[in-house]
Amino acid sequence: MTAPGVEKVVIVGAGPAGIRAAERLVQAGVRPIVIDEGIKAGGQIYRRPPPGFARSPEQLYGSEARKAVALHTVFDRMLAAGQIDYHPQSSVLTIAGSFLQALTPAGRKDFTYDRLILATGAMDRLAPVPGWQAPGVYSLGAAQIALKAQGVALGSRIVLAGSGPLLTLVAIQLLKAGAQIAAVLDTSSIRDQAAGLPGMLARPSLVLRGLPMRARLGRLYHAGVTLDRIETDERGPVGLCWRDARGRAHVTECDMVGLGWHLRAETQLAGLAGCTFDYDESWSQWLPRTDRMGRAAAGLYLAGDGLRILGADGAEVAGRLAATACLADMDLPSPHATSDLRRLGRYERFARAMARAFPWPGDIVRAVPDDTIVCRCEGVTAGQLRESVVYGGGEANRVKSLARVGMGRCQGRYCQLAAAELIAGTACIKVCDTGRLREQAPVRPLPIGLWVRDT
Amino acid sequence: MTSELQPAALGGRIVRLAEKGRPQVRFRLDGLDCQALAGDTVLTAVLVCASAVRQSEFGREKRSGFCLMGACQDCWIWQEDGSRLRACSTLVAAGMQLRTVPPEIWP
After folding, report:
1. Structural domains of chain B ordered from first start
2. What is the pLDDT of residues B27-61, one digit of tens each?
3. How many CB pairs under 8 A join A and B?
4. How far is it, in rounded angstroms, from Cα B53 to Cα B56?
5. CA closest to B66 among chain A residues
6. Please, is A194 exposed, middle or buried when counting C-beta atoms within 10 Å of its C-beta (0-12, 13-18, 19+)?
7. Which of A43, A59, A100, B94 is the most exposed place for a label (fewest CB within 10 A)?
8. Residue A353: how many CB atoms within 10 A of its CB?
9. Is B15 on the interface with A (CB under 8 A)?
10. Which CATH entry fits the domain spanning A363-433: 3.30.70.1150, 3.30.70.890, 1.10.10.1100, 3.30.43.10?
């Protein structure tokens, strides 16, 4: 039990940021409640397979094995010592005031808190490609999770397309595991990548790790491509039609396509908790506004990729900083943050350079044909979206009401940013002026029977 | 009925690359016996022997999951008792009775 007089702190998310935040609180004598959707703590990048799997950390996490093991060990130790109140496989669905509700394996559970640290991470950022609604098209992250947590490939002949660090990494991991990769298609040009390189030297070791990976892909890798469409039959993809940097048309046969353009912050809970958002031009998405420590509002702290897309190392630092701010605000002794703040600044310079090297393909999205599905959940097309803008104006929440883009089960997670481009293009306004989709509780679908209380 | 169960090599979508020696788990899909491995998610278990988990409610295409991290809600699958579960974040259990189409008891 938390000692009397000590405030109740809830951490949502047990990835790198959530674990380091918990660790810092525990070091100061606070026993946080940790709520996480995973079966085991670790988050996505350091996700652990379910019980019964036996690959070594080196096989699972490669060069990052040491970091993964360190995080898992810290968490498991705190759990064994009873220093945290841990709720795995639990989704926080709504937040209001100092109260949140979660869906746990045992049903609905309500929590109250004095301070809240959100470390909700990120997901793949997706752009619509004609045909991407077919079964057998997955996110790049999905391809990585399937390999890491299940030891499987999601197809027998794979094309990976999009841009960002995950594109090359997932390709290498799949090849190493014995999967068949037909092509790795990067929409960012060699010129974009060269423009990002100077800033990426803020973390030279990562550049030195990434370049040989790219080299190892050899002729599978193509930069500066345009993705025309995914050819499908009723089972799924049969080929990907694309044009190379010189404009020559190609068709690559495949039965699985993995798509992703870097990451998109998971911000639904931050929005419900009252964060303010700004459209960030370099990351091309809405991100929560905080101070350097991660303070978003009184008693509300953010850390990790749900705040800034800095990757796992940055998330660990941000988690420590958010907890440090939380401790300071509770008038508890907290360590100096100077060196962590400096480290965070360096990671951010690197991450912004990455975003420049592997840009969001806004212009390509604006040009998709009218019959392209934008909303995978409900099959809403680019044409229907454009029509709703002409009819109702260029505001995202209005477009959601009229065309249902963002209304489906994923609640806009995979269509919001593409929709913003299409709205901006149709209404001839800037993306930042299209408005951010208002989040709605519950942030995940829930069985209504569990929420109806017997009276 | 839209189910089209076939031997894994023909009907499945997923290829096992590692850790194939785990204990077997038996479950039923659309009334037919299927085998998975302990530790498989429902999504893995189903897509080893079938190409999809469900017909899309909004389009002609079928659904077979998309993000595998509980964010997209693409992989909901029916159970014989009329309930549904999210296939990517649920581990398969012996005796599960899964369906790619709603059960007859569903109105």
Report:
1. 23-99 (3.10.20.440)
2. 999 999 999 999 999 999 999 999 999 999 898 89
3. 139
4. 9
5. A138
6. exposed
7. B94
8. 21
9. yes
10. 1.10.10.1100
